[in-house]
Amino acid sequence: MTSPVRKAVFPVGGLGTRFLPVTKAVPKEMLPVVDKPLIQYAVEEAFAAGIEDFIFVTSAGKAALEDHFGRNHQLEDALAARGKAAELKVLQATMPEEGRFSYTRQQQPLGLGHAVWCARNLVGNEPFAVILADDLILSQTPCLKQMVDVYNRHGGNVIATMAVPHEQTARYGVIDAGGVQANPVPVRALVEKPAPDEAPSNLAVIGRYILQPEVFSFLERKETGAGGEIQLTDAMAKLIGDQPFHGLDFEGRRFDCGDKIGFLEANIAYALARDDLGAAFAERLKEYAN
Ligand code: G1P
User: Fold this and answer.
1) Span 201-211, pLDDT tens digits
2) Which pTM value belongs to this model?
3) Paired residues of 32 in beta bridges
4) What's the confidence (pLDDT) of residue 79?
5) Pick the CATH number of 7-289 from 3.90.245.10, 3.30.1330.40, 3.40.1160.10, 3.90.550.10
6) If DSSP codes are grouped into helix, strand and coil, which group holds residue 219?
7) Which one of 48, 137, 216, 217 is most buried, counting C-beta atoms within 10 A?
8) Is 234's C-beta closer than 6 angstroms to any atom of ligand 1?
9) Average pLDDT, the chain
10) Does 229 contact ligand 1 (Cβ within 6 A)?
11) Is 163 helix (H, G, I), strand (E, B) or coil?
């Protein structure tokens, strides 16, 4: 029997320098894809996967995130007075049950591994998910739900993977599956941001993880890796051999919203997929085809 995955950690401390000037006063996780901020897509995906407790690892300047998931009585009253029932319903999705959302500060930007470690006391001694909101995934079944299904069969740790062009391996964590072709595939080793000629494969880690709490004991050591940062990948690699560790080549399309082109593409894909906007937007886009 595996323990259920009830908690998810959202590392939201990043500065978002690639999106300046908008990220000077707006957290990058609040950038909208169509009309919803990136962080809300991440939260809704976790919710759809059965997550009950949501843990945000923040930094200075991220208050808008907490406001987004808090009640705004003035706005609710104004919408109610104007009979705007549909808009009130949209707001409902941003108002979690009290006590389900927790916020903790990452006091120094020491890396993704450090951000996850900051959540250790809120996670406690149970398996947990990690979602990077920059990686937006459009799929039939929410990506984290696909991973929970794998976890329920295999236990241990599960990470999302995707084949990337070989020349791009230095942007990602990369898995070594020993040439085995399976899905999910047992992971034999992990390397953070390897140069193409040193990469064990072209299977990249995408920002979705189900991890066992033992990973905290390795993060605790604060060892630095690629880029001088405390890397989650390095701590995960140490679990391999002691616990099941699988990579899932998920169904769906991933958009790198930490990158301008990826972010713009996500807006097009999500707008086209919307019942209320898709047809009209497709018509308008034809004007830009050349
Ligand atoms: C992080 C992880 C990396 C992973 C990537 C996915 O890198 O460290 O292993 O492949 O997210 O988006 P970052 O994009 O923060 O440099």
Assistant:
1) 999 999 999 99
2) 0.97
3) 37
4) 95
5) 3.90.550.10
6) helix
7) 137
8) no
9) 97
10) no
11) strand
